[in-house]
Amino acid sequence: MTRINTVLGSISSGDLGITLVHEHCVIGFPGWEWDPLCGPPNRKEIVQACLKVLEPAKACGLQSIVEVTPSDLSRDVDVMKEVSEKSQINIICSTGKYTEENGVWPYLKWRNQLKLGDLETDLYDLFIQEITSGIGQSGVKAGAIKVATSLNRIAPCEEAVLRAAARAGNETGVPVITHTEDGTMGPEQAEILMAEGMKPKRIMIGHMCGNPSLDYQRAVLNKGVSIAFDRFGIEIFLSDEMRLKTLLALLGEGFAESIMLSHDYVGASFGRGGLWPEHMLPQVANWSYFHIFHNIIPAFKKAGITDEQIRTMIIDNPRRLLGGE
Ligand SMILES: [Zn+2]
After folding, report:
1. 182 Cα–ligand 1 center, Å
2. Are 218 and 186 in contact (CB under 8 A)?
3. How many angstroms is it from 287 CA to the middle of ligand 1?
4. How much is the pLDDT for 39?
5. Domain boundaries, given as residue ranges, for the chain
6. CATH topology for 3-323?
7. Model pTM?
């Protein structure tokens, strides 16, 4: 068993148990800090909001979550620490960067343009720092690297992130977890990461449930990497019924050992109002940290998916991804 960095210190990979591999406690899209119409964040309310939705998941046996907020979406490790202490759920936090369009790049671009630094080297250095020394003054070490690419393309900054992440992941033994837009650019992400030496089993290509094409799913899986069906409960772009249909087909083809599950749930958000407009709320009515346990796993069982296959997806695969065994 390997040691895994959590926000409260390291644990054995054997103690991860049931793990959701792509969730968030709190996020904020860059710019909320300068919105004069939103008051200062209420830390207590944010923690309470996360705990309220975590409790029912814990009652179903949830033991660990991978919190994949990159630094430029207002990742808040102090919130994660408090949520982990109070819920007694392991939280593995991430280093990493968001997309070129929606992340924060001016500082690194400036350094790169004026040759004060090299973009890929700067990224590699900061990932290594956050994994081995810790994030800011918190003492919390990242246990995963989050990378992201755009819809149907990989922008230059995103490619630098992929290359730096693979090198840092390889060196430190932490996995790379990706964000794809609607499940596009999965094979390309895998190719770049593997070209830099990242082992396929330490790569999880995310948001693949956004792409209902079985040929596309197979194209990614045949690279040897794992994939995540990690947006259960967000029925704005795609229904859970569609996600289930694709997933059941892949399980039928014997891919259980390469698939992980999650919700991409966001416990609270910084800024004004919530994440979704009122009229969309019915399409996220089930979105939570517990939807998979309450609704998706029962649907699996009805479809004839075995307990062993379910265990593989929610316990064994996350342990292998995070711990490397
Ligand atoms: Zn996410």
Report:
1. 12
2. no
3. 13
4. 83
5. 3-323
6. TIM Barrel (3.20.20)
7. 0.97
